Hints:
There is one protein chain. This protein has helices at about 35-50, 65-100, 105-115, 115-125; strands spanning about 5-15, 15-20, 25-30, 55-65. It is an alpha+beta fold. Strands 3-2-1-4 form a four-stranded mixed beta sheet, covered by helices on one side. Strand 1 and strand 2 form a beta hairpin. Helix 3 crosses helix 4 (about 115-125).
Amino acid sequence: MTIKRELEAVAHKEGKWWEIHIHELDQVTQASRAKDIQDMATDLAAVVLNLDPDEVKVNVTLRAPDDAMQRWTQARDDIEKAQELSAKGAAESRAVVAELSQQFTITEVARMLGISTQRVSQLKAKKPADA
């Protein structure tokens, strides 16, 4: 059969049950197990719309508790900031090595910075896009 209606639903845990909201239909149903959410949402939409379940597609999004989502968002922000700082640190490391290498040997630069001569060579060879 052909899909006649496509809807969005949001499911969240409420005690021992999953509450499933199909906002477009202003309807709610429940499921006791996560694996039943899709079937329950599809059945609800089919009944309300007077369609066969094969004619309805419900895209269900599981929503985590608000505190978990806030922590998740903060963690993602922290990772992004750390990546930006890492890139900035890498660029500055390359710049310092390049600057010192104009006046000093690789061995001298390595000893000054407390890194190996191989690392000095790597930093000299890397372009900003390579880091």
